[in-house]
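Hey,
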Amino acid sequence: MRNTFDWLRCCRTGAELMATVRFFAKKPSFTFTDLEFGAPLSALDGPCQRCYFFARHDAHSHYCRLCKTILAGASRFGILARKCLVVWSVVNELPPAFRDGSAWQKENIRGYYVHDQKHFLVMMHRRQIKTWLQDIALYYGAALKGVFQIFPTVGVGKELGMGEILCWAGHHEPGPPFKQLHVQFHSASYQVIKPSVRRRQGLLNFEISEFLNLLEMTEVFRALLRPEEQVQLFELLSLGDPKEEQFYWGRFLGQLNQEAKDMLSAWRIRQWPENRVKLLSELIDYAVLPDTR
């Protein structure tokens, strides 16, 4: 018989994943015995066209009762899910607050799923990740050890669904022993399939305190530079000709206020390696806007 994680693996989109985890969080005692097995596939009949396991809800539906409920929920979460990220976590042991559900009763949590004593999944708006990680480090950082794999719900190709991304995340998760709490950051969900690429670039593994510092820097960066100035800066830092960069650098600084100039000077951003600049640009969407703090 299927379990909850089997239904997560059926999800094609982030909206379906959110609808699924929210359904089982609200109905933890849901029993699959209420669903009938589907008929063998034939020209006139067959099982649910989504799970290919249970019977269709009625003669006019292509889906079983549960899949129909999930897809109806996904239709409401489409816009919200595209702004959310997924955290798939493996830890030494779940704290009691994670097991009894009290840790999930917060406004920034859009959905959660506890797999076993060492694994859990949580979904939230991407700009809430810093607040959530700060709470984790403050309340559980001394005892909790493991890895948080962070990836967005966007960036999934036509041949790849969120359920498959979850399977890849489980496949690549490190095993114990865990020495401390780490974050593995993926700017697109397909990167979960081959994390070695980002690992070689130095864009994958971070201690939780290091990742929080990066998010703090990104918030300052976003607060002091307007969006068009951010684009100009990244284009400028990507120039391959040092002479051309020097020429445009002076013109670029001339349009900035003094605070922005001091920030770029203190950071020595022109000496940053290419991968560090790339990471800063990837974290922009996860930084809290100044007027929303």
